[in-house]
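Re: weekly structure request thread

Next one in the queue (146 aa):
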Amino acid sequence: MTLEKKGRFWYGTTVEDVKAEIVRFSRESAYPAVKFAQSRCGCGSVIFRLESDEDEGAARRFCVACGTSHWMGDSADYADGARFVGHTCVCDHEQFMLLSGVALYEGSNDVRWYTIGCLCMNCRLVGVFAEWKCEAGDADAFLSRI
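Done, posted below.
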């Protein structure tokens, strides 16, 4: 890992750096993420724009290579009432590598909390850009749809 703190923010170069930030952040919020999956478009690209509504518990990503949009996890179930906000890095760029992490209910594989971490493709900032309580059931099935 190559995480480096500069001022208030962390910077990195790999999806493993995003994972480290999700782990750090989620431990502080009392719902430690234990399972992870990287977003990948059907075209093979791993670079996206991200929109979310944390109040409704919904997120969607847009592939920068082919333009395809994709609901993340169970977000399609909550999209009707959502007011999506696009995410922009502190450097004003909007293209990210995305990693999702989930916390589980004790003794189960059921999702309890969902966290989306990002790596900015311009300045390499690593951060958690969205999180919410999530009753999505099986974590493996949920993460297969991110």
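The chain has one domain: 11-143. Residues 11-143 form one domain.
Next request, please.
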